[in-house]
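seq as requested:
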Amino acid sequence: MLAAPVNPADINMIQGTYALLPDLPAVGGNEGVGQVVEVGSHVTSVKPGDWVIPADAELGTWRTDAVFSEESLVKLPRDIPLLCAATLSVNPCTAYRMLADFETLGPGDSIIQNAANSGVGQAVIQIAAALGIKTINVIRDRPNLQEVVDRLTSLGADHVITEEMLRKPEMKDLFKKVPKPRLALNCVGGKSTTEMLRHIQVWVYVCNTHGNVYEETGPDKDRLTGMILTLCDLIRKGQLTAPACTQVPLKDYRLALEASMKSFISSKQVLTM
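struct tokens:
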């Protein structure tokens, strides 16, 4: 293993509150990038030196070394940055599938999402911008609000607003600049989602951004690989970057876990081996 992030779903698995629960004993971590050092005599899809990422959840990526079947891995091109590779298989894939699978969106259409500063929210902003889709991005008010707004804007966000602004009459002025959303992405629930729904078109899909959607093997692995290569192409073009990351040596994993559970965390903790 080269690097593996700490995601909320990883913490939820450890807490026993996630939909997918591995058999115990288990290694934590569902995402990351490794480099192949040796292969069996019948392995054909990867070779020593290749970079690989998980094709399945529950592989356990918070470790220095592992032995996996080739079916459980997807080969990556080596010309993308390490942190992009380490954070590719969950949030960007989730963002891509939500933008592609629930509504036919085209240039000029708009979507709305809450928790827009999350890892998946940042990926949605960038992929949507590459497709010419406008984004209305809702975040919680916070002490460093302008800093977060500036970062999301730099990624391609068209509009960044707080949850409080959703309830104000000024929202009517916003929709003079951008059409009402055809897709809503929810990462929060409750009142935040209710307020978002007041501003959407009559027919709209509301997608829940929790969970991993990249677990595809067998016949569907070609589809997964195609999506990964599409995202890698966006990375090469500078249209998709890794979220803000803090690299933490694996031996200091406790610090990474503690930091990842703090409120208003603005940097993804990435364990480096």
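The longest helix spans residues 221-236.
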